[in-house]
Amino acid sequence: MTGLASFVEPAYGPRYLALPDGHGVTVRICGPAGCVVRTSTDAGPDRAMQRARRVADLSFVDFRHLCGCDPWSVGLLRVTVTAIPSPPSPSVGSHPARVACPVGGQCPSTGETPATGYGAVSKAAPLSGWATFG
User: Fold this and answer.
1) Domain containing 7 — which CATH number?
2) What pLDDT is recorded for position 130?
3) Which of 2, 63, 116, 132 sits most deeply, having the most CB atoms within 10 A of its CB?
4) pLDDT tens-digit profile of 78-99?
């Protein structure tokens, strides 16, 4: 989405970002002098400003980086905001670390035959192909 961004006073901090979808949204914001990747910390701009094509309220530091100028001399900046999807998180139970097997019967996932108790638990094969995001 392309639109206008404003800045907030430096007291809000160097990583402040308000987006219409609220906090927790990770985006790439590009202006004429560069790009930043940020996760929103607040909801905004207000509805009246959104109707006026305002798409983000940026920290003073990010605004200066994106425009390559003195924010006080410009006020508003044309930016492009692109959402960055969150990495998928496995749902509970979708990739179990352990599998319950019937006593006296063959465990379908491992081929083992548990010998005692109500059912033995055996380890499943380790998962592969998952990247760690941090």
Assistant:
1) 2.40.40.10
2) 35
3) 63
4) 999 999 987 766 655 554 444 4
Kindly state whether residue 134 falls inside one of the protein's structural domains.
no
In a domain, 114, yes or no: yes
Q: Say which amino acid occupies 89.
A: S
Domain check: are 57 and 116 in the same one? no
The identity of residue 15, as a single letter, is R
Rounded distance between C-alpha atoms, residue 114 and residue 106, angstroms: 7
pLDDT of residue 74: 92
- Single-letter residue type at 95: H
Domain ranges, residue 117: 94-126
Contacts for 105 with CB less than 8 Å, ≥ 6 apart: 113, 114
Output the CA torsion sign for 95, 97, 100, 106: positive
Confidence (pTM): 0.64
